[in-house]
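Protein modeling request. Please complete all fields; requests missing the sequence field cannot be processed.
Requester role: graduate student
Desired output: 3D structure, token encoding
Chains: 1
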Amino acid sequence: MKNLKRILCLTLALLMLLTSLIACANSEEEDTGHGELSISEDGPVETDQYGQEVYSDPTAGLSFGGKQVNFLVRSGSQYLREWYTDNPTSNVDQQIYSRNVTVEDALDVKLNYIVQAEGADNKDFYTKVTNAGASGQGEIDVVSGFAAYATNQNAMPYYVNWFDSEKLPYLNLDRKYWNQNYQRDAAAFGKLYVNVGDMNLSLYDRCMVVFFNKTKVAQYIKDSSGNPINLYELVQNGQWYYETFYNMIKDVYEDTGDVQEQRDNKDFYGVTGIKGSEASDAFLYSLGGMLSTTASDGSHSLVTDTKLQKLGDIYEAMTEFWYSNGAIMPTDSATNYDVFTGGHALFTVDVVWHYETGLTKLHAMSDGYGIIPMPKFDEDQESYITGVQDAYNVLSIMHCGQNQDLAMISAVLEKMAYESYNTVRPYYVENILKLRNMDYDSSNCFNYVIDNICFDFCDVYCAGIGWVRNALWRAPFAANASFETNWSNYWRKNNKKVQDFDAWLLAQG
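Delivered output (509 residues):
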């Protein structure tokens, strides 16, 4: 019966994929098709139907005799779904199901998913990790954890360094299905204990972007000739700047709520954004800011000199924007959705996808909505930069257990990332995330979003270092306080946290 279910699911997946390919073939723009060649600095490169480089299967011919690999995964449906579902019904479910079957059959392994509720501040989840590590029984091989809590110092001693090629011989971390930006910013002293691969769809869900109300933006935002401004053209021409965005929203306020002369969620605003996170963090990254810097010897510290001055300029611009007459900052995502989808704001700064009910509200908007990247600081900034809200999944490999086969685990992760690169991730981005969430122009602009996702060392290791961003960025912003004063008061304490964490990392095996 189980084999019959597997065959039926695979057949349905193939039918869904065939339907998708036929639709693509009938579209105005033709796919390059598998086997096409593109030209790079290194010469011709074979590309697939999504235009991405074709790789050979690095795990071909490996077999592990039916051994089981245990994944600890978060119980939230939006994070669990990138790993498996018991009842695959949607197209992306079928893609993931097919990927898992392919990995199991090709390597002769069994994928076992242990679903764990997180608890307050992820305490329950990481208690499960540390208990498993301390037991030495090897009941957990791979941890897929909440990015903000993943570098828990109680858990990290049980993790394998991803760069240890002797223990993990089948990983090819220079391939594009392992996120190169993440590895660059998370690596320290030749060590990497958390990583992101193409199986981590939640990374793309949590990209911070600008949503706009199509109808009301056309009514309110005009060029010098009185014509509606085309936001998509601004983005594509590289002219979507902070000052442009600020001038669009700063004076847009109408007292349309139930209580006159009182600002509330029923008034009309230029922009809405979640105060405790997206409102502040999105600008930190998109305008080119970083909290930390890396010295030539690999050590880390909080930014100084010109980088600190730039950070101060970004903070000033951000507070000018959000504390203008045209902005409102709810403290939770549900209210923020309600303000924007209810037609009470021209724009919202938010992640691409929080949860299903929010997406339902977006789809129900009579005004329609579009998505564009966060703006550049000014014309001197070369590219759009995307920050990621820190609820996405990251991966760690555990090394506890006398009979644990780390070589096999590395092969399984490599094969899973490879298959996700070929099918799941591009299918999800192109046919689910884009087509489900975005119109044609928003879909094109979304490429700017995912091409330049960035990470900061202090954020990657926030649980281990001690929440530097909260103290030096979010806290003063929430109070509309002086950045310089707050930095001066707290930089020494927080810089020591960074240096102490460096020393801790150096001491790890």
